[in-house]
């Protein structure tokens, strides 16, 4: 099992040898592609600029496992979200990624929105989602007693779920690495010297040169910049910021479903949704920016969210805010993904994965491997992937601190370090010794929830840091 974070890159998987495929970008999409490639006897590298997997857009989204009911019918995104949603729901059951199938209500707040609901139901049908149903104002109030005044009706979309966005890429990366993929972190690719017939591409990274026969661009916001490194200029990524508010666990009782707005031109709009960690999310905004690093929150953005949240669920505004965050969607001006294979270059771009990439990730992995095979990559026979069971971060499933038998076997699971999130020393120890260990306290939080609760590490920060430093020494 190879995960590297420093030092010169190994010169291919053997002396003088090149990788068969290198996937650049270890977000949820790149990790899913690497995992899919791991089914074959290929030499595969997954190369990431930052120190961890899932550090880009993948760590800061709304965490909805979509059904794809509202995608553009006939688009590649519609197909891959539908397939990906089913695949991820099944994968989550197999590997322990927390998913809660709470269902969604698309709430209409005026006559125009109410009139749009039948059209959205028809669109859902065209997208193969046959389970939607209209909900009248009175029933809506029984389903969601805390909804603000003025809701005229809704479209119920069963099967929309909430999922853990942090465990998902980590599960893919863990399984890929255990199945033979080399993961190189802290390894930005700065230049590409495209290969010719019979000669591999040479990727010039900050940690040396990596040679590879086939190349996949899964660079998220930087997919256009990476394309430029191989001489392709097919689209431009404009970051579309989404700011979100995370409300304290006491707010969880206020909402039962994902409360969606009727979508507008700038995307899916502002929603209120439970999280698998037992909080409530309000967001995201949709702001087109120039800066691909602008993941800060703004007073105006948060005020606008509060104003909209106050209409949807007035009591939410009385609850404590645990955290705010922002993520950037990779918008490209197209209403679809920007996926293109360039067989002559032995190169595939998986770009423009805007607001549904978490859901579609497993289907994107399959689709990309199909494109690589069409471009000439010989896959050979399929073999089983190494099994993975991920630690549970979800409130709806058993957590170690409540598991008496487990604590009896190993008292470290009875020793709570982070009291807000009830994270034990055993879980922190396990994360630090895992296949893809965290490189930072934030990485540890995404693996355990430690420091992620209402005190944001004020109480447990020092103790968690000591464990982190001891475990990474
Ligand atoms: C506010 C918001 C809400 C969202 N809500 C949802 C939702 O509810 N459900 C859903 O399914 N999806 C949602 N999404 C979309 C989803 O988060 C994205 O589609 C997905 O995370 C994109 O993953 P990615 O792997 O393409 O990109 P990223 O996660 O950004 O990964 C790309 C990686 O490439 C690396 N990289 C870039 N350039 C280089 C280089 N030269 N060398 C090496 N590495 C490089 C980066 O460091 C980064 O880690 C949302 C997105 C946002 C922003």
UniProtKB/TrEMBL annotation:
SUPFAM superfamilies: FAD-linked reductases, C-terminal domain (SSF54373), FAD/NAD(P)-binding domain (SSF51905)
Domain FAD dependent oxidoreductase: 20-369
Pfam families (UniProt xref): DAO, Fer2_BFD
Chain ranges of the BFD-like [2Fe-2S]-binding domain: 416-470
Database matches in InterPro entries: BFD-like_2Fe2S-bd_dom, BFD-like_2Fe2S-bd_dom_sf, FAD-dep_OxRdtase, FAD/NAD-bd_sf, G3P_Oxidase/Oxidoreductase
PROSITE patterns per UniProt: PROKAR_LIPOPROTEIN
Protein name: Ferredoxin
